Amino acid sequence: MQSPATPVLDIAGLTHGYGPTPVLNDLAIRLDRGVHHLLLGPSGSGKTTLVHAISGLLAPDKGQIMVDGEAMTGRSQTARDALRRNKIGLIFQSLRLVSALTVRQNLHLAGRLSGHPTTNDAIDGLLAQLGIAHRAAAKPRRLSQGEAQRAAIARALIGRPSLLIADEPTSALDDDNAARVASLLIEAADRNGSTLLIATHDQRLRTLIPHTITLGAQGGTIQ
Ligand SMILES: Nc1ncnc2c1ncn2[C@@H]1O[C@H](COP(=O)(O)OP(=O)(O)OP(=O)(O)O)[C@@H](O)[C@H]1O
């Protein structure tokens, strides 16, 4: 990890589009360590495009993205993949656990891929934090939706990423469960030294995470 003063995410002049009008236009964002943010914006405003650019899954047309002091932009796909595995934990809506592996094996694999191979004890400790230690030997299809979501959060955290990004983790949930999942994400991020960015339409999360980045306005609005 870099010094505490190094921003977890530092974006300058980010522009990207798929046609004549850019989706992201000269965007600037700075996330300080430990300050969790929501990434808000209506459908089509560019949240997924921004998450993909931050994660190095796409190379933007213009601009610079620094993740925990290291450049995600201006590098090869291979270098971007390595930086993502080392610095970023991603939780997608479709969870993407490997179905042939148990929960514990999924976490071992994620640890190896992130360059932080880990022990059964460390994995079981993380699963216990998330309340699913008793499901370590289960295959994903045997998990409830809530357990599978907790396993996906554990998998994203196994490499102790500087930045933890969750895509729409609560939109399909009722109020109680949305608050529960958001609180779980915040607590898990805090305990593992990760800064959380939640891409969402879900305005209910503002009460738990007051800092927001809103896309849709020219260049985005940071609060
Ligand atoms: N690969 C692509 N090719 C062409 N256009 C794209 C591509 N990906 C996204 N777009 C367009 O870019 C715009 C932003 O899309 P994006 O998925 O980033 O928005 P979003 O805010 O994540 O939307 P949602 O909340 O509906 O998931 C949309 O108009 C979309 O149609």
UniProtKB/TrEMBL annotation:
Keywords of this entry: ATP-binding, Nucleotide-binding
Gene3D superfamilies associated with the record: P-loop containing nucleotide triphosphate hydrolases (3.40.50.300)
SUPFAM superfamilies for the chain: P-loop containing nucleoside triphosphate hydrolases
One annotated Gene Ontology cellular component of this protein: plasma membrane
Limits of the ABC transporter domain: 9-222
InterPro entries: AAA+_ATPase (IPR003593), ABC_transporter-like_ATP-bd (IPR003439), ABC_transporter-like_CS (IPR017871), ABC_transpr_LolD-like (IPR015854), P-loop_NTPase (IPR027417)
PROSITE patterns for this protein: ABC_TRANSPORTER_1, ABC_TRANSPORTER_2
GO molecular function per UniProt: ATP binding; ATP hydrolysis activity; transmembrane transporter activity
Protein name per the record: ABC transport system ATP-binding protein
Record organism: Sphingobium xenophagum
